[in-house]
Specification:
The structure holds 3 protein chains of 3 kinds. Chain A is an alpha+beta fold. Helices cover about 30% and strands about 30% of the residues of chain A. In chain A, the strands form 2 sheets. In chain A, strands 1, 2, 3, 4, 9, 10 and 11 form a 7-stranded antiparallel beta sheet that branches. Chain A has a 4-stranded antiparallel beta sheet with strand order 5-6-7-8, with no helix packed on it. In chain A, strand 5 (about 105) and strand 6 (about 110) form a beta hairpin. Chain A starts with a helix and ends with a strand. By secondary structure, chain B is mostly helical. Chain B is about 45% helix and about 5% strand. Chain B has 29 helices and 8 strands. Chain B has helices at about 1-25, 30-45, 50-55, 120-125, 125-130, 140, 165, 175-180, 190-205, 205-210, 225-230, 235-240, 260-270, 280-295, 310-320, 325-335, 360, 365-370, 375, 390-400, 410-425, 450, 455-465, 480-495, 520-530, 535, 560-565, 570-575, 595-624; strands at about 65, 75, 110, 115, 210, 215, 345, 345-350. In chain B, the strands form 4 sheets. Chain B has a two-stranded antiparallel ribbon with strand order 1-2. In chain B, helix 2 runs antiparallel to helix 3. Chain B is elongated, with a radius of gyration of 33 Å. Chain B starts with a helix and ends with a helix. By secondary structure, chain C is mainly alpha-helical. Chain C has 19 helices and 2 strands. Chain C has helices at about 1-10, 15-20, 20-30, 40-45, 60-65, 65-70, 70-90, 100-110, 115-140, 150-170, 175-190, 195-205, 210-245, 265-280, 280-290, 315-340, 365-370, 375-395, 410-435; strands spanning about 55-60, 310-315. The chains are: A alpha+beta, B mainly alpha, C mainly alpha.
């Protein structure tokens, strides 16, 4: 009886094995693919599409609210709005060293945490800061209000003409 | 091998389903809208920089966080309505269309350019429009989901709303209800519907029954101070046009309102949210404190009119007039909106009795007492007790007493139409125009069983002297005995129809043979509990478990006015031999003896004596 | 020379270490290549953490698909799905009355896959309640709770109660009208328990009414306390299955069968098993096993005496079957979640209960009974039912009818249990579909 079984195995081995291989391959592909999709979807799930903090793109009002010579920090949005004549720009006030909020003065920016100093355009003049303060894109929305997009940095010195 | 095949198939199936799920999550309508907007705006842009900015934008969820108005709101509406603040898109189709500018919203034109009064970045969208700010699909965002309590006001009607209301509840004017959340002034020009609704709330006498903070203090109906927060438009609308649709036990009358008036009231009520953005918690607390203060310190004789604060001018004018004059009474009756329910002259609310010749029916004392507490005299009246001053009551009573001009007496038929039909109905079946609002219900003259079981002189007495504790007044000043008789004949001929039989004399004592005593009362109570509670109720108020299925309704035995004006003899007759044409059975057939009935009558009378004493005490207190 | 030779033999060249790196990692993780021999199959089971809870070999009867219908496994896989989706949902959920409902809206609106994961979690939870119950029915109708499996049945009943409680605590979390009033009604039923009822309710709600405290408590119970207890008990439940001799089977199953008799086994494997069996010589082999470690294991698995071996290797027979159940379970939940959204009703309004306010469906049988008698329906009868369920293996002393569906010998027990099942299901159906406003009888059609 055992012999018979063994013979059966021998006989059937060649053809069904290959079919079995195909099935095994399909099975594992199905499961593997599903697993990859699942893992990827869960990563997508975990990444918020909308956050509850300040939006990166926000309106700061009409240009008239910022007369020439303005240099003010908007605390909530963590950005300094600067206007010189007809030109405006928005410079980050988050220190590039370790993320403290820098103070805004006529002469430039100074960080209270580790003494980094920046000039009026945000370039490093002293202290441990590795990079100049980034400039953000300023644009005029169709409703006549200025918009700042913190999601988009522009090269320092690229002023927005009102 | 079969297992492996099944396994392989299942694995492939699961991969496919995963793929479907994955795909489903990556298609969003709003992305299409945003992309299309960027493209359109890009072609409209004036310079290269602007164009570059637009071209570099990619779709993302836009949101406005609004913190100034109550709970923090997250409005993601601009994700689809991305051109809402872009004037170039003012004629574009939805959802790109720009929000219009309007003077009524406070927008101003400066140098040819419009400036918004309500900045979207501060206010968001749902503060004015309602809807679900967090939703990103139209169905949810606009509040079409029946489970969302705030569908876009005036724009969205939910599917489960009654079809006949759906059309009526559309229109941007409904949004005025939300303007009022901040603009609480009574005469705010941009919310005409709210203002009109507030006025109607007074003139249609809603204030008599309903409380609304800062407007009225009624206690008979539900408090409506935050009705707009609790209910959607359709429910408010339905409750006005058909009060019993949502609450079967409601006795709120169906007021005669035009479509426009109903709409104004709906908008006004929708604007009642309990708490409005214009006030702080401290404001509310102060107001609550002050109100209590005013009420407790109000001297009963001075003429303060807190109810009609927004009609201040007229009130002041009238207070300076002599306080008991008929003229003052007339103004007050006018102003307090009595005619919203009652008929006075040619004004008819169609809900309550005719007061056009009240001077002939009731006396001054009755009217004043009735004003103070309608239920003390007609226990099941739906008329609310108004908290006016005594002077006002006197004046209004004086005015009513001056109304003594009844329609000229004519044929019995005309008399019936003039005097009886309002309650007893044109067909004499007791279903008159105002019958629904009367309790006890007007007598049904077509009920021959009852009509013919009572001797004629008793019926004439009812006409002549009225029935105590009910809305049936004494007509003796309008109809003399002869006319009453003619009227009764007319009724018998036209409505009762059946011939009157001779009434068998029944052996009934004239006076209760059982002396009033605590023992007798106790025995009476026992019998009452065993035999009577099913219909007359545990409290003897006529509202027993079976009472709803019985017409005419079981008598309210706490109706002192009625019980005290009814002789022992009549009570004996009704209990022992039943009342024909009603559900009251002849208890003599069910084993009650004369003495039992005597005990019962003593018990019922004792209930009303106590009540009487209480009432008298109240009355004395009120007069002092 | 010798030194360098031995060094060579001890240490591979750097290059070969690099090329063999993937294989080395594989074997360090899985220890064995895919097995092709019986030794390999056994070793796979022994050395793999995830497989070590399986026996090396299982009885053919166990693999019959319609004997167990995979219900127990299905419950376990549903539990796994619930754990995974639940943990993911925790990333966005805030157990606060002010925020919970808004977070539900966000899951539906702004979070990718949010609504889908919520659906999965919801349907798996409902599914688990149903499947665990069916699993219990299976165990009863096949008489599988009898000695030596009595205690595992008790654990199973406790697990069923835990499942109900897990589902119930999760029901409140969306903080919508459905949740709020279902929990209000549900905890009110608990309040009818004599003596401790009110205290129990107070303890559960952390307040006299359902509010912020209740939400927080239910959250903690739902995400930490109950899953932990459930996990431990599931572990014990599994361990006991093996220690109590695997799944139940009738005595006949151990008789010698012809090759094509019962299970549609993999021919190769069946053959291989038989070969190994004969190769070592029939009787001797079994005699030898008498002194093996298996001798410690109770139950009919121990090969003492002349018992023919009707077992097959777990790898791959059992594993494939398990995989199949897993895929079917996940597939079912995915499809369900794809087509049906989990309900989300109005935000909580404590002044306006819906009419009728219903408990979750699995408690509607209770609610239906409560409508007749508060104490007996809410506490008395269910309490007795649970007590009887717990005691069943100790009350039922018959030894017959193990491992067979609806065995004739167990007619009385099966009839009683069937009555219990049918009555409960009917009550649930009445409560769910036939109760309208004011809990009055209403036709669903």
């Amino acid at each position: 009886m055992s012999e018979k079984n063994g013979a059966q195995v021998e006989n059937e081995s060649s053809e069904p094995i290959s079919r079995r291989k195909v099935l095994a391959w399909l099975t594992s592909m199905g499961i593997l693919g599903s697993a990859i999709v699942t893992i990827f979807s869960n990563l997508v799930f975990i990444k918020p599409r909308a956050t509850y903090g300040q939006p990166t793109r926000f309106s700061i009002g009409t240009p008239d609210q910022y007369p020439p010579g303005t240099r003010i920090a908007l605390g909530d949005q963590k950005v300094a709005v600067i206007r010189e004549g007809n030109k405006m720009c928005a410079i980050s006030i988050t220190c590039t060293h370790l993320g403290c909020i820098v103070g805004v003065a006529e002469t430039g920016f100074a960080c209270p945490c580790h003494g980094s100093r920046f000039d009026q355009d945000g370039n490093v003049t002293g202290g441990p800061a590795p990079k100049p303060l980034p400039w953000y894109e300023v644009s005029l929305a169709p409703n006549g209000e200025l918009e700042i997009d913190k999601g988009k940095e522009v090269t320092a010195g690229k002023w927005f003409t009102v | 091998m079969k297992t492996r095949l099944a396994l392989a198939l299942a694995s492939i199936a699961i991969l496919v389903v995963h793929g479907m799920v994955f795909y489903q999550q990556f298609f969003h309508e709003w992305e299409t809208y945003q992309k299309s907007y960027f493209k359109q705006a890009s072609t409209l842009s004036k310079n290269e920089a602007e164009k570059a900015v637009l071209d570099s934008r990619s779709p993302k969820i836009e949101q406005i966080m609004v913190t100034q108005f109550g709970n923090a709101r997250v409005d993601r509406c601009t994700t689809c309505h991305i051109g809402s603040d872009d004037p170039r898109f003012k004629d574009a189709p939805h959802p790109y269309k720009a929000h219009p500018y309007s003077e009524a919203l406070g927008d101003k034109q400066v140098n040819g350019k419009w400036e918004r009064r309500h900045k979207f970045a501060d206010i968001g969208c749902t503060v004015c429009h309602d809807g679900q700010g967090r939703g990103l699909e139209e169905f949810y965002a606009h509040g079409e989901d029946e489970f969302w309590t705030e569908p876009m006001l005036g724009y969205v009607v939910q599917e489960n709303w009654k079809p006949e209301y759906q059309k009526k509840l559309k229109g941007k004017e409904f949004m005025q209800a939300n303007c009022t959340q901040c603009h609480t002034e009574n005469d705010f020009a941009s919310t005409p519907l709210v203002n009109k609704g507030r006025e109607l709330f007074i003139t249609k006498n809603c204030y008599g029954c309903h409380r609304i903070e800062g407007v009225s203090n009624g206690t008979l109906g539900p408090d409506l101070s935050d009705v707009g927060k609790k209910w959607k438009l359709d429910y408010i609308y339905e409750s006005i046009v058909d009060p019993r649709a949502n609450s079967k036990t409601s006795f709120m009358p169906q007021f005669k309102l035009t479509e426009e008036e109903t709409k104004a009231l709906t908008v006004f009520l929708k604007s009642r949210r309990g708490f409005n953005f214009a006030e702080t918690n401290l404001d509310r607390y102060r107001a609550a404190l002050d109100k209590g203060h005013v009420e407790t310190s109000k001297p009963p004789t001075t003429d303060t009119n807190t109810e009609n604060a927004d009609k201040g001018d007229t009130t002041e004018a009238t207070t300076s007039a002599p306080s008991t004059s008929v003229a003052l009474g007339q103004t007050l009756v006018d102003q307090k909106a009595c005619a919203a329910c009652h008929k006075i002259g040619d004004k008819d609310g169609g809900i309550a009795p005719d007061l056009s010749f009240e001077g002939l029916m009731r006396d001054d004392k009755w009217v004043v007492a009735h004003f103070k507490d309608p239920r003390a005299l007609v226990p099941d009246s739906i008329m609310p007790a108004f908290s006016f001053s005594d002077n006002e009551y006197q004046a209004m009573s004086a005015y009513l007493m001056s109304l003594t001009q009844a329609p000229a007496a004519a044929s019995a038929k005309e008399n019936y139409q003039n005097y009886c039909a309002r309650c007893h109905g044109d067909k004499g079946d007791g279903h008159g125009m105002i019958a629904t609002y009367l309790d006890p219900y007007p007598r049904d003259f077509t009920n021959a069983g009852f009509m013919n079981s009572k001797p004629e002189d008793r019926l004439i007495k009812s006409i002549q002297e009225g029935v105590g504790g009910t809305s049936m007044p004494a007509w003796k000043n309008v109809l003399n005995e002869e006319q009453s008789k003619e009227l009764l004949d007319y009724i018998a001929k036209t409505y009762t129809k059946q011939k009157r039989q001779n009434i068998k004399p029944k052996s009934v004592p004239e006076k209760n043979p059982v002396a009033m005593s605590t023992q007798s009362n106790a025995r009476g109570e026992q019998i009452y509990l065993q035999r009577c509670t099913g219909c007359h109720g545990r409290k003897a108020d006529g509202k027993g478990a079976n009472s709803l299925d019985i017409l005419p309704r079981p008598r309210n035995l706490l109706n002192s006015e009625f019980v005290n004006s009814t002789s022992d003899k009549r009570l004996f007759e009704s209990i022992m031999y039943g009342v024909q044409g009603t559900a009251m059975p002849p208890w003599v057939d069910y084993g009650l003896t004369k003495n039992d009935v005597g005990d019962l009558i003593n018990y019922i009378r004792s209930l009303n004596q106590e009540k009487n004493k209480l009432m008298a005490a109240n009355f004395v207190k009120a007069c002092h | 020379m010798v030194y360098s030779m031995s060094k060579k033999s001890q240490k591979k060249s750097f290059l070969s270490a690099i090329t063999e790196f993937p294989a080395a990692v594989w074997s360090s993780v899985f220890r064995n290549p895919l097995p092709h021999t019986d030794l390999g199959r056994s070793r796979t089971s022994f050395t793999n953490f995830f497989l070590h809870m399986h026996p090396v070999k299982v009885h053919k009867h166990t693999l019959k698909p319609f004997f167990t219908m995979g219900l127990g496994l299905m419950s376990f896989f549903l539990f796994l799905i619930l754990v995974v989706t639940g943990v993911l949902l925790m990333f966005y959920y805030v157990p606060s009355t002010a925020q919970a409902y808004d977070r539900m809206l966000d899951l539906r609106g702004s979070v990718a896959f949010g609504v889908f994961l919520r659906n999965m979690h919801r349907w798996s939870a409902h599914g688990m309640v149903a499947v665990v119950f069916l699993h219990m029915c299976r165990v009863f109708f096949t008489g599988s709770y009898k000695k030596p499996r009595e205690f595992n049945w008790v654990i199973g009943v406790v697990l069923f109660l835990l499942t109900l409680f897990l589902s119930f605590t999760g029901y409140l979390l969306p903080w919508d009208q459905l949740a709020f009033w279902a929990i209000t009604v549900g905890t009110a039923i608990a309040g009818y328990a004599p003596v401790v009822g009110d205290q129990m309710r107070f303890l559960l709600l952390g307040d006299t009414t359902v509010g912020q405290e209740a939400l927080l408590r239910f959250y903690v119970l739902h995400v930490a306390v109950l899953p932990l207890i459930t996990t431990v008990l599931i572990g014990i439940h599994f361990w006991r299955i093996r220690k109590d001799g695997g799944l139940s089977r009738p005595d006949e199953a151990d008789k010698v069968e012809t090759a094509e008799a019962v299970v549609p086994l993999e021919p190769a494997l069946a053959g291989a098993g038989a070969m190994a069996y004969t190769a070592s010589g029939d009787i001797d082999f079994i005699e030898k096993k008498k002194y093996g470690i298996q001798g410690l294991v109770r139950g009919p698995f121990t090969k003492v005496g002349n018992v023919p071996d009707n077992t097959v290797y777990s790898w791959p027979n059992l594993l494939l079957a398990e995989l199949f159940v897993f895929i079917l379970t996940v597939l079912g939940i995915l499809v369900m979640s794809y087509f049906f959204n989990a309900p989300l009703e109005e935000p909580v309004n404590v002044m306006h209960p819906p009419n009728p306010a219903k408990a979750p469906w699995y408690f509607l049988g209770l609610q239906e009974m409560v409508s007749y008698s508060a104490f007996w329906g809410g506490v008395g009868i269910p309490g007795i039912e649970v007590l009887i369920l717990l005691l069943v293996p100790y009350l039922d002393r018959g030894k017959e009818g193990v491992g067979k569906w609806f065995a004739k010998e167990r007619l009385l027990a099966n009839t009683l249990f069937m009555t219990f099942v049918v009555v409960n299901i009917i009550l649930i159906i009445i409560g769910t579909f036939f109760r309208g406003e004011n809990w009055e009888f209403a036709s669903p059609f």
